[in-house]
Specification:
The chain is mainly α. It contains 7 helices and no strands. α3 packs across α4 and α4 packs across α5. The radius of gyration is 28 Å and the shape is extended.
Length: 132
């Protein structure tokens, strides 16, 4: 029965020790710009060049909106990102759920059937369907 006590010990240890994800500090952008020199073809002496990596030009609302949309959708354009940033995620979701459905599943299924069924009959014939 020693293995049962060992199992319980390790299970307790596993459940009691906080688990932390990896923290990445080796990326460029959003303030991670140590040792990075940004060059520009512009001759102006403005600091706009550095905003690409120092994070000062990063709108945190737009960043969070883009990150949310990357998880919650199949992609988003800048207009959608800006809309979510302006409205907030919760209000944007409420607005999305209030929209009428864009596609009716039954209508789509029938449209697919009506498109492919005649082609299927033309290739295999009516007898093939009846006998299989």
């Amino acid at each position: 029965m020693w293995y049962r006590q060992s199992f319980l010990f390790y299970l307790t240890l596993l459940l009691c020790v906080p688990v932390m994800g990896q923290v990445y500090t080796d990326y460029v952008g959003a303030g991670h710009n140590q040792g990075v020199t940004v060059m520009s073809s512009s001759n102006s002496n403005t600091t706009e060049v550095n905003t690409t990596v120092d994070g000062s030009g990063l709108g945190i609302d737009a960043y969070n909106a883009a990150r949310f949309l990357s998880y919650a959708s199949l992609g988003a354009d800048y207009e959608t990102i800006q809309t979510v940033a302006d409205q907030g995620i919760s209000d944007w979701l409420d607005a999305q759920f209030a929209l009428p459905p864009q596609v009716n599943f039954q209508d789509t299924t029938w449209a697919i059937w009506e498109h492919f069924y005649p082609q299927y009959i033309a290739i295999w014939g009516q007898d093939y369907i009846v006998n299989h």
